[in-house]
């Protein structure tokens, strides 16, 4: 069955999650089609990060289902979801500050090979090492870090560290990449670089992007979903979302002008 027939590459149905008395997500349903850049927006505390946690496997919903490529992944642990092609860029804990950028990505490539048996299994160690390092260099180039291979990760600029995290996520060869506020804490120049990078990645992998920068969202997204108070109030094309009365109300007209 095609992804479309299943309601999208990612199909979220009736997902709820509470923390004590706080209903962070209430019956959220959302479909992400293969190949699209789908932005998830909403005011502070709307539940965006909580939804990303349910999708990545960092948390499990109280109710509802999450299907990925037709398979129910609602209760799968994070590593099993990564193996199926769901990656998350916000993986700071995976960066070894004292290793070089190249070594960091090489470890991620090796991890993928080790964890779910890759094509390098039957290679001689020396060829295997070369193949891993070559692939790692390709991912670094893909995120705009060519030339920074030998730089120790801890010495990279803030924006470059985010680019490195993206390379680590890409090294898992995802079909869906979850990006939670990729431009957070960046100045205009770094943000512009990351927007261009996301535009580039969006042509290669399906993206679900949480972002507060509305200029970036409206520039990058094919479709936008809006969460307010844990409820999904609309999904649509950028122009439809911009014109939606409830969305304008939620944002008090400010960013949507
Ligand atoms: N681990 C937790 N324990 C208690 N409450 C939580 C927890 N995680 C999230 N919440 C609450 O759930 C609600 C949704 O939070 P969430 O971080 O998902 O929102 P958000 O849309 O990502 O916000 P922001 O844009 O400010 O990052 C908030 O009220 C938050 O305080």
From TrEMBL:
Gene Ontology annotations for the cellular component aspect, listed alphabetically = plasma membrane
User: What are the alphabetically sorted keywords of the record?
Assistant: ATP-binding, Cell membrane, Membrane, Nucleotide-binding, Transport
Domain ABC transporter, chain residue ranges per copy: 10-254
Please name the SUPFAM superfamilies in this protein's record.
Answer: P-loop containing nucleoside triphosphate hydrolases
Question: Known Gene3D superfamilies for this protein?
Answer: P-loop containing nucleotide triphosphate hydrolases
What molecular functions are annotated in GO for this chain? ATP binding; ATP hydrolysis activity
Database matches in Pfam families = ABC_tran, BCA_ABC_TP_C
Keyword Transport in annotation: yes
- Report the superkingdom from the record: Bacteria
Q: What is this protein called?
A: ABC transporter ATP-binding protein
Q: Top-down, what is the taxonomic lineage of the species of origin?
A: Bacteria, Pseudomonadati, Pseudomonadota, Betaproteobacteria, Rhodocyclales
